[in-house]
C-alpha cells in the first residue's frame, strides 16, 4: 500500500506541474476573439440567461472557482484580465458550474448537499483516525468511526469528477458554438482543461487508496481482537 500512496503523491506533483506549465504556455497565445477571461464569462452567463451571478477577480494563481453560496464566478488575476485560450477555457469552465447550478444539475446538487457534513467532520476526522490507529490493539471502534467519516471525503472526491468533466464539456461546447475560439485555440483549451481535470482524478484515487489503507489496518485489528 505504501508504494501505491507514494506513486500517487508523485503523480499528483507531476500533474500539478504539468497543469501550471500548460497554463503558462497557453497564456502566451493571444485569443483571436480578443476577449478577456472576464468578458468570456460575461458572454457565457448572458447566453444562458443567467443574470444573478457576479464575476469577480480573486488573488492568486489558478484559484478560480464558482461559489454557489453567493453566486459568484471567482477568476484569478491571470484569468480575469488575460486574452488567451487558457484564460477563456478556465473562465468558461467556472461558468459551466454556474450553468449547472442554474439548471439544477443533479451531481452538483448532491455534492453541495455533502458540504455541510464534510465541514462538520473535517476538523475531528484526522484525530479520530490517529486515535483509532493508536488504539487498534485495544478496540477497533474508534478506527471504524474514522473510516466511516473518511469514506464521506472519498465519496465527495468521486462525486466531484462528473461535476468537473461536465463543466468542461459545457465550456468547450459553448466556446465552439459562440465562436470564441478557433480550431487551434479549442485544442489548447481542451488540453488545459484535461490537465486540470486530472488533478481531481488523482485526488479521488489517492483518497480511495488512503481509505483502503485504513480499512486494511481495521481488518488486521479485528482479527487480533
From TrEMBL:
<keyword id="KW-0812">Transmembrane</keyword>
<feature type="transmembrane region" description="Helical">
    <location>
        <begin position="143"/>
        <end position="163"/>
    </location>
</feature>
<keyword id="KW-0472">Membrane</keyword>
<feature type="transmembrane region" description="Helical">
    <location>
        <begin position="192"/>
        <end position="215"/>
    </location>
</feature>
<keyword id="KW-1133">Transmembrane helix</keyword>
<feature type="transmembrane region" description="Helical">
    <location>
        <begin position="113"/>
        <end position="136"/>
    </location>
</feature>
<dbReference type="Pfam" id="PF04298">
    <property type="entry name" value="Zn_peptidase_2"/>
</dbReference>
<dbReference type="InterPro" id="IPR007395">
    <property type="entry name" value="Zn_peptidase_2"/>
</dbReference>
<protein>
    <submittedName>
        <fullName>Zinc metallopeptidase</fullName>
    </submittedName>
</protein>
